[in-house]
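Handoff note, outgoing to incoming analyst
You'll be picking up this chain. Sequence as last confirmed:
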Amino acid sequence: MKMPLVGALFAVLLLGAGTAPAVAATSHDAAAPTAKAAAPQAVKAKAVNFAGTVALSNCSGSVVRTAASLPSDPALVLSNGHCMETGFPGPGEVVFNRSSTRSFTLLNSAGSGVGTLRASKIAYGTMTDTDISLYQLTRTYAQIESTYGIKALELNAAHPVQGTAITVVSGYWKRTYSCNVDGFVYRLKEGEWTWKDSVRYTSACRTIGGTSGSPVIDNATGKVVAVNNTGNEDGQQCTDNNPCEVDESGNVTVRQGINYAQETYGIVPCIGTGSQIDLSRAGCALPKP
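Most recent structure output, in case you need it:
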């Protein structure tokens, strides 16, 4: 888990944002039932850009919707649970419908800030089983599109697939990282937190502090399949900023320099009418307060 750190910022100042050394921002190894190797893509990949992403004060994020979202619904911003202004939630803790006035800088396709969006509340946030936050905004999807010409990114409702070509899009750094889904981690442990069924990237996605909360986009569909959240920096085992992989038999694997994300398909069943997070909806398995 990494917010912008002095080291990452210093590296960028020295080398330029496009060449900063890749450490992680803040993960599943045993194959999930639906995680089969991707077949060759016959469909032309969509161009991935910054449109719909946002910059937070300490992290990255994106304006997201489901396929069922209406233009009149209040818009939602997706980021990490560890990026919330309320601080890191402890194991088992869920932040639900808490008032917030947090602001987000909305980016266009070129990565330029075009306006400020504001939250009305933290609709949902946790670091238990996953690492996500969802902010409900004061504007609707239609109002954002009318004002800025920018559409929300759609959350994919299906489990991601091994081998898929993906792009991590950081609104904080205005930088993208391209690689593939390397596999899935049964349990990813970092410090006192444990995440289930996490995405492991191939080594090309060497994300840095500040990329936490970035949407992970399927290049073929343009949909969000995960949210970037951590990586093993120093080769330590299961410590802060050094997550370890634990398989179903309890075997521990450490992959220094490898980075991870949390799947987002499980969010979709939990979003009800008017962008309300309804944890009692059929298929919603997010941790409850």
